[in-house]
Amino acid sequence: MDRRKALKNMGLAMGYSVATPTLISLMQSCKNEVALEWTPDFFSKDEGAALTRLVDIILPKTDTPSASEVQVHIFIDRFVDQVAEKEEQDFAKMSMGRFLDKALQNSGKEKAGELTSEDLEPVLAEALKVTKDDEMKNLEAIQQYNEAMAEGKEANLDDSISRFAFAKNLRDMTIWGYKTSEYVGEQVLEYLPVPGEYIGCGDVQELTGGKAWSI
């Protein structure tokens, strides 16, 4: 897959397009973090290690840096910690726990921090390998679970659906965080630091060669 070409056009397909002050602040703080010394704010250290490997499975190093090289794992951890509501944080912990439990069960290992990319990739692939019909059913089940939890009712979500929820959210946030990073914003997407002439109805191919605009 030509990831550079995919990212150039992804802005038209992704729903994330508005940069809030909070998001800008998060991205700046992630850029200044030394990844080798990183201690997660929300996830445990073992979960953070697994998260780092997972984002690189989704966006590995090719002709552009891997997701972890532009601090996407730090962005995700900080976003969940500082922006997500309590219910969303609880759901993230629950779904990630069930995902990692499956990887640990398959690998025979005891700690999430010991899981390798080879241990995690099959679980990620299986969680995301769903038909359109199954995806809709999963999303409906997730919505019903969240509504029940919000009302204080007892609720349960199937383990496979929980893993799907984690994998899908992680994939979406990894792509979002990658596109929002300084490197991708300036080197891969079309970047104009000082906007000039405003063209409201121009053709994307003519204006940027088909590339999405960096935020």
Describe this structure in words.
With 215 residues, the chain is an all-alpha fold. Helices cover 61% and strands 0% of the residues. The protein has ten helices and no strands. The chain has helices at residues 3-10, 21-32, 45-58, 72-82, 86-107, 117-128, 132-150, 159-180, 182-187, 204-208. Helix 4 packs across helix 8. The chain is globular.
Key structural traits:
single chain; globular; 215 residues; mainly alpha; 61% helix; 10 helices; disordered N terminus
Alpha carbon gap, first and last residue: 24 Å
Taking the sheet with the most strands, its summary is:
none
H/E order of the elements? HHHHHHHHHH
| Category from helices, strands and their pairing | mainly alpha
- Indicate the low-confidence ranges by residue numbers: 1-21, 188-192
Shape field: globular
